[in-house]
């Protein structure tokens, strides 16, 4: 098996131990005498897995009892629709923070259902900074406030959660489980699995019970949180393999000291990498220091004619998927929970050697 470090933004690296566990039980899951991919989601083996994975996630995140946890499909993008459909609750305006590519997409989708009040707009600084919360223009009549705690493309991450008198909704796709959060501050938390949870095809939604029911009329039945919650995310066939894999990742996280343990490692990893970038004139990162992401670290080379060579040499050194998003250019190292500190060390060694040779 490859010993490479995979810096892909998503679908992203999975913990090696989890991949090995899945390999060892791929043909024969538990008492099923078949692969976990081949068994009914309504059978005892899968039901047990479903319950345990939910309980493990509840333990990891400290999810209060008055929240439902849903294991859905459609990615975070389906939540761009499901959030207004379920949370408008008779109102016709919602507030959104525009801090990057993904919040922009969420706003565009919400506009199909209601008026959108943009409370702050980081497009003016190319998604490198966030205006102080005290300057945000929040409309008190809004049904909810939506924000993106970590913008995956520009690497812009909040270091606080906004305090508001309305349901707070967070697209946590690229930051969930990377550090402790207080779930009780949120109305809805959602995340596509393929960044920090497991394989693509699964979306986790954590929703406060009193926000369930009362949907916009004539919308797809699968897009109603009530349908999903009363059927334990099994109104139709769930994404069984991705759900199982997520469960194995949750077990791995518990063994690693939970989100508190992860947060320490993640902070160390990110600080190491940013300090190498900051100490050099060869590499740079434009994001305001306090809002730099722990999960996605974009950096550009002073001479972009070296980009291609950097990527080729990195690949030869078993450092994969470092190409930045086309909208930002340069490089991006996505360093989710599954990326060990040794991967950061290998990247840093490579970057220093490349700089020495080409600066
Ligand atoms: C990747 C990503 C998305 C899109 O997720 P899909 O599962 O592909 O719909 C949305 N928001 C954020 C913050 C992301 O990182």
CATH superfamily of the largest domain: Type I PLP-dependent aspartate aminotransferase-like (Major domain)
The coarse overall form would be globular
Q: Identify the CATH architecture of the largest domain.
A: 3-Layer(aba) Sandwich
CATH topology of the largest domain: Aspartate Aminotransferase, domain 2
What class do helices, strands and sheet pairing give? alpha/beta
Radius of gyration using CA atoms only:
21 Å
> How are helices and strands ordered from N to C?
EHHEHEHEEEEEEEHHHEEHEEH
**Span of the ends, CA to CA:** 34 Å
Ligands bound to this protein structure: pyridoxal-5'-phosphate
Number of helices: 9
What is the CATH first-level class name of the largest domain? Alpha Beta
Uncertain stretches: none
Which band does the percent of strand residues land in?
15-25%
Strand order of the largest sheet: 2-10-9-8-5-3-4
Count of structural domains: 2
- Helical residues, percent: 25-40%
Short description:
By secondary structure, the protein is of the alpha/beta class. The protein is 34% helix and 16% strand.
